[in-house]
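Our working data are protein records whose layout never changes between entries. Getting from the letters to the tokens is the skill we practise here. To make this concrete, we reproduce a full record directly below:
***
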Amino acid sequence: MSSAGITDRLPNWFWNVISRIQYLDLSFNQISGVLPMTLEFLSTADSIILNSNQLKGRLPKLPMGLRYLDLSRNYISGPLPLNLGTVELNYLLLSNNLISGTIPSSLCDQLQSLEILDLSNNHLSGQLPECWTSANSFRAKSDRRDVGSNLAIISFRNNCLSGKFPLFFRGCQYLSFLDLSYNNFTGNLPVWIGTRLPNLVFLLLKSNMFSGHIPIKLSKLDHLQFLDLAHNNLSGTIDPSLVKFKAMTLTSPYTSDLNTIAANIVENIDGYNDPFSLFVITKGQILEYQNDKIFFLLSLDLSGNSLTGEIPEQIGALDGLKNLNLSANRLIGNIPETINGLLSPESLDLSNNELFSEIPPILSVLTFLSHLNLSYNNLSGRIPSGGQLETFLDPTIYIGNNNLCGPPTSKNCSRNQTTMSDLLEHEDGYNMSSLYFSMGLGFAVGFWVIFGTLLFKRTWRITYFLFVDDICDRIYVFMVLKWARLKARIMKK
């Protein structure tokens, strides 16, 4: 009875009536009430889908054989239970609730089969329990398959979790979607991310307190198409190898495990509500990408850190990027002209850096670009025009560059100001003048070689005029004979 317009409170007798139920879906209604403490006695329940309602209270102990639980977008509160009651759970979706407290260590033993874990947008706090931070310690305590070894999707987004990057993830070799954004995680990003998580497609660590350099081995993640490290305390330069992600190009096909997982869920659970959703700062605003749209989003966001050095020339190799955001760092140097290698970017933000020199006119060839921000740098010279740059009429995208001039800003370029555009125009004019001069010189030389020879060489002059007379006589005789034959044919008719 999903999306049935039900506005009511769940009565106590309801759970007795469905005591033998296997599949329950009351999602997208306005059902209120609390989940009963007797929920664990639904012994035959396989899937319970109650997302997008108004349910309150704590999460009770779950049925032993439950595989799928979706209580997202409700008002479930209180801490997570010390004992979930099930060891067969594949999908646990509790996002957008009011769940608080820490994640209990007792969950380690109960999540052996978990494939999707979504606890985003809650009030969870503290560090992850021992089994989640030390895979080795848990491995010594259990003879069964490591906890998390089946996990493919994890989202702890927008909580108050803390501690270092969880070592637990080292055992999640099938992990393809990891979102730790908007928490309080600290420390360096471990190098092993690039080798122990080979199937990562989406890595979101935005708005934490990670520090140190960006591990170069991240470039070994062949499937990584979305990397968001924005608003941390990362430092160092952008190593050229960090812009060699194969999945961010148009020439390296790959298979996304995330697509396969999502397809399997939709196939196995009718009426499944896709939980994948990304909020991306792009095109100058926060946009939400849902469902299959996120699978086509190729993004690199390193904004809001303390990165130094120049933008690597190799950035143009990421020709599949839709969003590139390097703003609010300490980057210096020119905007590399190789940036025209980005064949289909929709958003380019290089604002709030220390970039200098002129804006390369090559930016005008980025025909898909709908958002550009170069504000608050040290750029100078005339703002290029033509192509896609003609569509950017907002002067604020260039604000904070005191030495820029020309439209769309109100500052006029002085006549004696030499810019790269002027040099290009001067070079073009010089090339055209050289062409005309060469053509004229060639014509004069050729004319005088022939005319001078005939003028001063009597025998050549006589031979030349005899040849011309002979050609004229032949043409005259040919035309007279043709006309006579044509006239004779007309008379016969």
DSSP finds seven helices and 29 strands in the chain. The first strand starts at residue 23 and ends at 25. The CA atoms of residues 187 and 210 lie 5 Å apart.
